[in-house]
Records
---
Amino acid sequence: MHARVPADPAPGGPAVVLVHGLVVSSRYMTPTLSRLAPRRRVYAPDLPGFGRSEKPPRALDVPGLARALDGWMEATGLGSAVLVGNSMGCQVIAELALRRPARVERAVLQGPTMDPEARTLPRQAARLALDCLREPPSLILVELLDLLAAGPLRSLRTFFHAADDRIEKKLPALAAPVLVVHGERDPIVPERWAREACGLLPDGRFVVVRGAAHAVNYNAPSALARHVEAFIGARP
């Protein structure tokens, strides 16, 4: 797996791994990576099928993506880390935390999908269209470039895998402390569902980023980085 890593990684402290969502790649996480890099060892991998990583013959489901992330962490020498995900990346992190709890020191789930009330393609497409109107124009270009790199068919199949995944059944079993971050103007993950997801966690905390849409990692990276830093420093 390909990963973006700062040229001059900061020493010490827990490593932070940024996990992107559906269709996009590590490029989508670079604004947050750059904010965390001065103080943290931070990595932003491309999940298999996306960005510069290998393209498996078939789109991987959420457990398959979690296994790939686990294998990459092992190969990179990361016994454990703080994992920060956006959108479908939250589903991958939840699966990894369930299957390999020692890997996940803490988790930040930013805009966790999928809202059980909107698992169909038409509903998600409608929410995505509204979100595009609320995101920076530069993000739309990033999403289009990453969609072309992944391919429409792989992206569509990955969507259906994500829609079949039931994150709400996994959250109650997660042992690690988890911070749920919600963008106030996120139409893809409404606050109702974000709070419900947080309430399912044994050790869940909730924060709202005012004025932010779905991609807080891109449209409000400084705010997200501050919340990640505070969460890492918080007492268990």
---
Amino acid sequence: MKIRYKFITGLIFILIVSMIVMNVAITHVLKSNMENSINNFLKQVMNSTHEYVKYNLVTNSFKDKKESLVEEGNYIIKHISLNYECKCDIRDINYILIEGNVPEEFRSITKKSKKVAMDGKAVVDLKYRYNGVDAILTYPIYIDNEYVGIISIVKNYDSKYRDYKNTINIINIIELGTFIVIFIFLFLRTNKITKPITELTDAIKKLGYGDYNISIAEHGKDEVAILAREFINMRDKIKEQIETIESEKNKVYKLEKGRKEFFNSVTHELKTPLTAISGYAELLLTGMVKDKDFDKRAIERIYSESDRLHKLVLDLIEVSKGMCVIKEELNYVDMKELIIQSCSDMNIKANKYSLKIIQNISEGTVKVQQDKIRQVLINIIDNAIKYSYGGNEIYVNSYISDNKYIIEVINNSNPIPDEIFNSIFEPFIKSNNDNKDSRGLGLYLCNEIVKEHDGEITIENGSLIKVKINLII
């Protein structure tokens, strides 16, 4: 059973029990008031009728009081019945009927009261019917302390009983109306109270199925609102943790994929020069070709491929260092001087390609690893020299912006193909027109070095290639 129905059932049970108890109590009070009212009225009737009987018997002083009661009985009966709208019996001291008009159905009740009346006490009995009540008063007649007889009076109180029943019915209607109003109020109020709990339950189920975009109301300061806020906090934390796990999972996947590609690329890059070296060495050893020019070319090729293999191994060592994140000591470096020196070192190669390096360098001091940043600058400028096309100038600019020292190397060139540009900072990425000495590790190493300095390197593609390096001052 839902908590809402449990709550409503409990409240209705308490309400019904309370109404029953209240109804019984009110009925008892009203009935007691009615009976007390009847008793009080009959007491007045008893006093007045007793005085009337006494007066009639005392005026006839020459006769015995018992005899006078017999003689005056009929007159007394008529007087009492007429004046008090009741029925009346008069009996002697032996409880023998003298005169009376009480219906036979009530005489059995008066007979039960005989003993009490003969003992000198008044008795009132109430006889309830379906739609009315009759009161039977029995009391002894004493005149000058002489026991003369017994009078029984039966009076109908149907009107008073109807008033009593009407009052009970009105109270029942009021109670029923109150019950309906309270029930509707409790139902609506319970729905309002339990609605956030129901929403929270549904939200928890959705959260269990992986839906983290759920939202619930958190108005108010009660326990349910506090629970809703805590649930939202929990949802946000779980969502954040799941996103972190997914991010780390993707990183691991990319790392594993990168390692595999790196291994395949390394295998390929090592295999190419080794195949050439092995092939030429085998030809020289077997002496299959008797040509001194060929022997010279073979030795030169073995030397060039060995040199290439040596450089490749050195680059792989650098890559390995980058992966192991071995940092050198950081020092404050005059960036203007470092850039000018690097440009000066590359001027000879630029002149060889009929290119001119134009510098626009700003002052700036940055805490960096000087040799590594020099390596980045030389590599970037070297790429600009090798891939310049349709222009005679390479621009090297630097300036300070947003607390960053920014270096730009700009040259005219053919646009970089998309398949190369999209993964340009990955290892062993080379274009088809790269020379055979290129190993595709330069930009990868540059990117790793800049990231090691908490900086950023970006490339803008097009007919004008712009490499931008951001270093935090």
---
Amino acid sequence: MAKVLALVDRDPRDGTVLRSACALLTLARRFGEPVAVVGGDRPDAEAIRTLGRFGAVEVWCLAEAGAALGSGPADQPAAPAPALGSEPDPDPATDTDLLHHLAARLHPAAILIPATHRGQETAARLAVRLDSGIITNAVDVLPGPDGGPVAIQRCLAGSYLVESSVVRGTPVITVRPEAAVPEPRPVTPVVRTAGVEPAKIPRARIVASPEIVADRPGLDHADIVVAGGRGIGSRAAFAVLAEVADALGAAVAGSHTAAELGWVPREARVGLTGKTVQPRLYLACGVSGSVRHRAGMQGAKTVVAIGDDPQAPIFKLADLGVVGDVRAILPALLAEIRSRKTPDGGPAESTESDQTHSTDS
């Protein structure tokens, strides 16, 4: 069976394997043997166990700094991992060099890469290096009639799905984080190192990676997202929305308009021009639900909408709707959540309210 390379996305703070990497391995199993590729710092034992749990038959990482092809024993079982941070930070050029080397060595059926900013740049560089076709922002990857990968992409702000395949070279596919639910299939992976000769081309150098310190969950991986739109009305009212999010242990997001008004940072914008999220609960407050906003949140498991316009498009998508003045409802909701907190600060209980009505999803 052909191998499928999957570039592993990890938390830069502690090296933890992210959910998106486990999803890539799950997709890779559909049409080949998953091979996890880890750029940057060596994965520790826990990261390797996680990759094996989701089916990685091999885990490839960079050799010791300075070990280039022909200069030492490369492509051998890996030595114990050094402490995180002892090797250079990963960057698209380094990832490209490693994937290019492994593509030439392993002749994979496809190369799957997370659709992050770093991943998109890596994929573009790699496709040029391999002279291969590239598919970006896939929301699913399925085996085609010939056993090769067929990528599913959204177009026209998510209104349609299209099937795409690569007809030349090794398919390079970037995959959105909501593309698959990680499914365990435990194996014991073989861990190997690759001594990679850096390409002799000019490259950018990362001089700083400022860490954004926040008390709230990250938007990309939050179970609950509380989002506000123009209907919130003001920055002061948005502060109440943030309190609701904190009471729920949720991430705060905003529509394109809310970000343009400066009520939320641009990196917290959800939609076609911002983040794509897939939480268990998406609470949309004062959000009309434009096509470009829905493109970023329609994968949520449950959508609750609060707004004063019953004809707003968001109510057609919502599982539960509350029609009314969001500026009056949010303080009442906050008080109710706080009153139902357990003594140890646990989550609020789920209750029904006669102020809500169901809408068609």
